[in-house]
C-alpha cells in the first residue's frame, strides 16, 4: 500500500462505507459482537464463534459478522447488535449461546425482534 | 421514556443539542446506516445553504444517534413538529430550506410517515443507562471495528491530522486547544493547550510526546476501553500533538496487564504506518511522526509523570520534586509532553469541529482563562453498589445524582445510598447531601474530592466509611515508592490508627492524631501520591465524622462491617427455620431444629457474613 495522500481519505471512506452499510456491502443483515475485555470475560468470544457457526451452517451469504469495542454496559455483557436492512439496529444483552441461536433464527433469518432479550433499538447520543 | 425529541433538544447542553434561541432544530441521524448513505454530506450541504440565506442564528443543525426512525436513510428529524424526513440527498437541500425554513411547510415528498409502534422494545437513547450519556471520546464505540483502520477513516479518522498539517500552523493548533478549554483527563485537570505551548517553547531537542495509559486506580478502566474501542483516535491525537509541539517521536506507556488494549494499539500503529499516517513526511507535508509502545509493570506510582519517565529510561519508577517540569526536562532530560489517553482522544474532534463547538459542552467560561471551566465530556467507570455498572461518558456539569440514579439505576437490593468516591484512591467520598453537585474539576475539588482520572465507586449503607478509608490507605501503602518519609512512614501510621478505630481500641485522641497526621502527609510528601493519599481519610472525616465517633465512643460500627465491633444473631420473629444458614456456615456455629428459629453460637462465629447473605428472610441481624 503506497502512502496516503489527503484525497485518499475520501476514497477509502467512500469504499469502506459501502462495505459497512447494511443493504450495500454488508449484505442484508449485520451482526456486531461487542468484544472488549469486559465482553470477552463475560463470554463474548463464544457468542461470536456461535454466531459465525450459525451463519455458516445456514449456508447464507447475505449476513456480515463483525466485532467492535465495549458498549459500556458491562453489567449486561455479552452483547450483540443486530441490524436488518431497513430496520433500526437492535441491541441484545445478557447473552448465552442458546439465546444467540434463538435471535439468529427469529431476527436474522425471519426479521422479527426477539423482545425478551432485546435491550433497545437505535443507537446512542453522540455529542 | 417520557422525553420527546423536542424537549430533549430544549434541555440539552451538548453537541447534538442546541442551546436556546433557535427557531428550528434539524437533527440528522449519525447512525451507521444513515451515515453510510450520506447524512454527513447532507448536513454540510444544509449548513452551507443556511449560511447562504443568513439564517445561521435561527436554524441549528446537529447530528444525533439513531433514534429508530429508520426508513430509507439518511433520516432527519426537524423540530418543532417532530417532522421526520427520509432519503435525503444534497440535491434536496435547496428545496428543503426553501419550503421548510422559509415557507414554513414541510417538503412533503421526503416526509417519512412512521409506522405505528408495535413492539415494546424501547429506544436505546431513552434507556436510563444510555439516555444521559453523550459520546464524544467514545463516539465510535459499538460502531467501528477497532482493528480496521478503514472503519476509523469512515468516521472522519485522520482528517483532523490532515486539516492541521495542511491548513494550520503549529501555533494555530495550540491556540485552538487553548480556546477549547480542554483540561487533562489524567487527574490534574491542567489545560492541555497551555501544556503544549510550554513544551513547544521549551529549549532543547528532540522533544517527545508520551501518552499515559498506566491507569493504576483500582476499579478504573476508562483508558483501557478507549484504546480497545478506538485506538486510532489516540494515535491521531498524539500525532497532532507532535506537530504542534515539534516532536517526531511518541510513546504510549501502557500497563502490561492490558494485553488486549496493547494488541489493539500495536495493530493500529502497524496499520497507520502502512498507510503512511505514521512515519516520514506524513501527507507530504514534511512532518515525521513515529509511535512506539512502552510496557509498564503496573505500578500505580508509575502513572506520575516523572516516575513514568524514569521507568521508561530504565530507572526505578520514583517521582522527583515537582519544581522541575517534565515539559522542560522530561524523558532523557528533553522537553516532553505527557497527556492521558482520554486527553489525546479529545483532540481530533476539537480540531475538526472547532473550539467553539467544544466549549458549548460543559461548565464555566474558558474564553479568558483556561482554568475558568470544565469543557467537553468525561468518561467515568461507574462501579460499586449500583444496578448498572459500566463505562459512561457524560457532559461536564451533569449532577452526581443523574450519574448514580438515572444512568446507574440506583442502589440494588433496596439499600440506601451512602456516598460516592470519585478520583480513585487519591479522591474523596461525597455524601448524599451533595448529590446535586454538578460534576466538574473545580466543584469536585471544592468538596474535598477530585475528578481524578474518572473512577466512580458507589457505596451504600452497608459500607463502613472508616473501613473504606483504610482500604484506600492500605492500597497506597503498597504502591508508595518509599522515597520520601511522610508518605512511606506516614501512611503506615495512618493505617495503624485506622486499624485501632476499626478494632475498637481507639479514643478521641486517635481521631485528632489521625487528622493531624493526614494533613502532615498531605503537605509534606514529595509527589501527588502521598500528597493526595490522605484524601479518603480527610473526606470521610469531613462528612462521616459521626461514624468515626461511633467506633471510638460507643465501640460500634454503624454499617456493621468492622468485625471487632459487631455480633451476629438471628431474629426469631423472622427466622422460619429453613436451615439454609446452618448448612452454609463454615464454622458450624448455627444450630436449630428444622422449621424452628435458629441461633448462632457467638464464641464460634467468625463474622464472615455468609448467613446474612444466604438468608432469604433477612433474619440475620448485625449489632
Ligand atoms: C500517583 C499518581 C498516579 C497517576 N496515575 C496516572 C494514570 O494512571 N494515568 C494518567 O493519565 N495520569 C496519571 N497521573 C497523572 C499524571 O502525573 C499526569 O498528570 C497526567 O498523565 C497528565 O496528563 P493530562 O494532563 O492529560 O491529564 C498520576 C499521578 C499520580 C501522582
Ligand atoms: S509521596 Fe510517596 S510515592 Fe511520592 S515520592 Fe514520596 S514516597 Fe514516593
SSE blueprint and pairings:
The complex is a heterodimer of chains A (127) and B (623).
Chain A: H1 6-20, E1 29-34, H2 37-41, H3 44-58, E2 63-68, E3 80-84, E4 90-92, H4 97-109, E5 118-121
Parallel strand pairs in A: 1-2
Antiparallel strand pairs in A: 1-3, 3-4, 4-5
Chain B: H1 5-11, E1 24-29, H2 32-36, H3 39-52, E2 59-64, E3 76-79, E4 83-85, H4 93-103, H5 128-131, H6 149-154, H7 159-167, H8 170-180, H9 192-201, E5 208-213, H10 222-229, H11 231-245, E6 249-255, H12 259-274, E7 290-296, H13 305-312, E8 336-340, H14 341-353, H15 355-359, E9 362-364, E10 373-375, E11 377-384, E12 390-395, H16 400-407, E13 417-422, E14 428-431, H17 441-446, E15 455-460, H18 465-479, H19 485-502, H20 508-524, H21 528-532, H22 535-543, H23 545-553, E16 568-570, H24 580-584, E17 590-591, E18 599-600, H25 610-614, E19 620-622
Helix pairs in contact in B: 7-11, 7-14, 8-9, 8-11, 10-11, 10-12, 11-14, 18-19, 19-20, 20-22, 22-23
The structure holds flavin mononucleotide and iron/sulfur cluster.
Amino acid at each position: 500500500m503506497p502512502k496516503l495522500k489527503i484525497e485518499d481519505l475520501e476514497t477509502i471512506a467512500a469504499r469502506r462505507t459501502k462495505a459497512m452499510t447494511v443493504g450495500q456491502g454488508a449484505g442484508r443483515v449485520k451482526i456486531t459482537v461487542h468484544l472488549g475485555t469486559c465482553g470477552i470475560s463475560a463470554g463474548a468470544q463464544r457468542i461470536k464463534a456461535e454466531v459465525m457457526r450459525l451463519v455458516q451452517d445456514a449456508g447464507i451469504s447475505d449476513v456480515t459478522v463483525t466485532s467492535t469495542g465495549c458498549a459500556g454496559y458491562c453489567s449486561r455483557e455479552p452483547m450483540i447488535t443486530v441490524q436488518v436492512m431497513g430496520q433500526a439496529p437492535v441491541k441484545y444483552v445478557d447473552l448465552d449461546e442458546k439465546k444467540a441461536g434463538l435471535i439468529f433464527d427469529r431476527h436474522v433469518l425471519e426479521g422479527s425482534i426477539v423482545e425478551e432479550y432485546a435491550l433497545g433499538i437505535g443507537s446512542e447520543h453522540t455529542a | 421514556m417520557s422525553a420527546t425529541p423536542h424537549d430533549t433538544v430544549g434541555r440539552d447542553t451538548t453537541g447534538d443539542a442546541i442551546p436556546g434561541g433557535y427557531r428550528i432544530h434539524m437533527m440528522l441521524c449519525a447512525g451507521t446506516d444513515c451515515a453510510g448513505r450520506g447524512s454527513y454530506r447532507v448536513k454540510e450541504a444544509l449548513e452551507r445553504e443556511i449560511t447562504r440565506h443568513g439564517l445561521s442564528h435561527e436554524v441549528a443543525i446537529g447530528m444525533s444517534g439513531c433514534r429508530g426512525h429508520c426508513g430509507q436513510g439518511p433520516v432527519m428529524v426537524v423540530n418543532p413538529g417532530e417532522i421526520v424526513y427520509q432519503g435525503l440527498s444534497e440535491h434536496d437541500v435547496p428545496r428543503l430550506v426553501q419550503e421548510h425554513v422559509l415557507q414554513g411547510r414541510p417538503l412533503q415528498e421526503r416526509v417519512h410517515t412512521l409506522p405505528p409502534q408495535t413492539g415494546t422494545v424501547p429506544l436505546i437513547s431513552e434507556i436510563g443507562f444510555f439516555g444521559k450519556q453523550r459520546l464524544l471520546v467514545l463516539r465510535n464505540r459499538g460502531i467501528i471495528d477497532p482493528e480496521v483502520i478503514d472503519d476509523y477513516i469512515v468516521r472522519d479518522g485522520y482528517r483532523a491530522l490532515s486539516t492541521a498539517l495542511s491548513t494550520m500552523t503549529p501555533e494555530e493548533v495550540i491556540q485552538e486547544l487553548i480556546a477549547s478549554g480542554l483540561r487533562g483527563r489524567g487527574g490534574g485537570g491542567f489545560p492541555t493547550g497551555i501544556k503544549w505551548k510550554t513544551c513547544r517553547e521549551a529549549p532543547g531537542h528532540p522533544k517527545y510526546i508520551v501518552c499515559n495509559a498506566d491507569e493504576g486506580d483500582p476499579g478504573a478502566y476508562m483508558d483501557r476501553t478507549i484504546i480497545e474501542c478506538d485506538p486510532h483516535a489516540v494515535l491521531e491525537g498524539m500525532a497532532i500533538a507532535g506537530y504542534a509541539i515539534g516532536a517526531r517521536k511518541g510513546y504510549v506507556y501502557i500497563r502490561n496487564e492490558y494485553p488486549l488494549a496493547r494488541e489493539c494499539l500495536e495493530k493500529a500503529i502497524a496499520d497507520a504506518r502502512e498507510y503512511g499516517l505514521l512515519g516520514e513526511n506524513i501527507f507530504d507535508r514534511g512532518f515525521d511522526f513515529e509511535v512506539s509502545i512502552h510496557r509498564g509493570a503496573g505500578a500505580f506510582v508509575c502513572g506520575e509523570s516523572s516516575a513514568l519517565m524514569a521507568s521508561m529510561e530504565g530507572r526505578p519508577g520514583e517521582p522527583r520534586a515537582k519544581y522541575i517540569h517534565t515539559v522542560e526536562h522530561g524523558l532523557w532530560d528533553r522537553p516532553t509532553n505527557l497527556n492521558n489517553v482520554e486527553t489525546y482522544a479529545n483532540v481530533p474532534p476539537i480540531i475538526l469541529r472547532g473550539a467553539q463547538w467544544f466549549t458549548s459542552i460543559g461548565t464555566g467560561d474558558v474564553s479568558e482563562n483556561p482554568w475558568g471551566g470544565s469543557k467537553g465530556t468525561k468518561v467515568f467507570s461507574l462501579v460499586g453498589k449500583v444496578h448498572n455498572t459500566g463505562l459512561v461518558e457524560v457532559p461536564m456539569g451533569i449532577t452526581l445524582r443523574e450519574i448514580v440514579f438515572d444512568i446507574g439505576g440506583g442502589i440494588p437490593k433496596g439499600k440506601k445510598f451512602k456516598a460516592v468516591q470519585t478520583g480513585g484512591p487519591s479522591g474523596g467520598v461525597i455524601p448524599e447531601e451533595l448529590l446535586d453537585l454538578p460534576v466538574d474539576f473545580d466543584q469536585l475539588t471544592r468538596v474535598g474530592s477530585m475528578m481524578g482520572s474518572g473512577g466512580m465507586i458507589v457505596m451504600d449503607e452497608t459500607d463502613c466509611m472508616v473501613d473504606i478509608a483504610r482500604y484506600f490507605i492500605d492500597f497506597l501503602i503498597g504502591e508508595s515508592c518509599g522515597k520520601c518519609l511522610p508518605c512511606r512512614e506516614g501512611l503506615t501510621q495512618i493505617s495503624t490508627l485506622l486499624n485501632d478505630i476499626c478494632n475498637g481500641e481507639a479514643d478521641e485522641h486517635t481521631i485528632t492524631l489521625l487528622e493531624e497526621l493526614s494533613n502532615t502527609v498531605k503537605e509534606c510528601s514529595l509527589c501527588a501520591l502521598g500528597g493526595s493519599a490522605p484524601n479518603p481519610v480527610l473526606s470521610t472525616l469531613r462528612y462521616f465524622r459521626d461514624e468515626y465517633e461511633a467506633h471510638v465512643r460507643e465501640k460500634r460500627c454503624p454499617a456493621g462491617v468492622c468485625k471487632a465491633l459487631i455480633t451476629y444473631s438471628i431474629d426469631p420473629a423472622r427466622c422460619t427455620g429453613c436451615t439454609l444458614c446452618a448448612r452454609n456456615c463454615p464454622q458450624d456455629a448455627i444450630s436449630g431444629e428444622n422449621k424452628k428459629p435458629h441461633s448462632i453460637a457467638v464464641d464460634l462465629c467468625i463474622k464472615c457474613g455468609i448467613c446474612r447473605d444466604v438468608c432469604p428472610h433477612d433474619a440475620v441481624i448485625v449489632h
